[in-house]
Amino acid sequence: MIPKLDWRRFSEATDKEGFVYDLSAAIRGPGLFRLTHHGIPPELIAGAFDGCTSVFDLTEAEKRTLAMRAGPHNRGWARLGVERLADGSSVLELSLIH
User: Fold this and answer.
1) Which are the contacts of 40, defined by CB distance < 8 A and separation ≥ 6?
2) Residue 10 neighbours by CB distance under 10 Å
3) Residue 67: predicted pLDDT
4) Can you tell me the distance from the alpha carbon of 8 to that of 1, in angstroms, rounded to the nearest whole number?
5) Following DSSP, what letter does each residue of the chain receive, concatenated?
6) Could you tell me which residues come within 8 angstroms of residue 23 by beta carbon, excluding any fewer than 6 positions away?
7) How far is CA 53 from its chain centroid?
8) For residues 6 and 14, is the Cβ–Cβ distance under 8 A?
9) Of 28, 32, 48, whose CA–CA distance to 40 is shortest?
10) Number of C-alpha atoms within 13 angstroms, CB side, residue 74?
11) How far apart are CA 37 and CA 74, in angstroms?
12) C-alpha distance from residue 55 to each of 38, 49, 68, 95 (Å)
């Protein structure tokens, strides 16, 4: 189940500490969450999804120009099978186990 977090708890200061605790639990647990009442216009969200989708349509050669460089931010494209988890296993290996 994907945790649902209400941004108003933080933005309106009704439960900042609880929101941060729940956010941390969501990130450390399932690794994702759904943020509600954030005020981001639907058009902006749709544009972000369109931009993400267009990356998947690129050829591998084009994706290589977006390759992740060594650095602290983990941003960019990574070829399938090159990323490793903290225990040294690959994401593909983990998905085959579970």
Assistant:
1) none
2) 19
3) 83
4) 21
5) ---EEETHHHHTSSSHHHHHHHHHHHHHTTS--EEES----HHHHHHHHHHHHHHHTS-HHHHHTTBPPSSSS--SB--TT--B-TTS-BHHHHHHH-
6) 5, 33
7) 14
8) no
9) 48
10) 2
11) 28
12) 26, 10, 14, 23
Tell me the pLDDT tens digit for each residue of 18-71: 999 999 999 988 889 999 999 999 999 999 999 888 888 999 999 888 887 766
Q: What's the pLDDT at 90?
A: 54
* Entry pTM: 0.58
Looking up tokens 């994706």, which residue turns up? 63
Q: Which residues contact 90 (CB under 8 A, 6 or more apart)?
A: 81, 83, 84
Distance CA 24, CA 20 (A): 6
Q: 85: which 2 tokens?
A: 């988890």
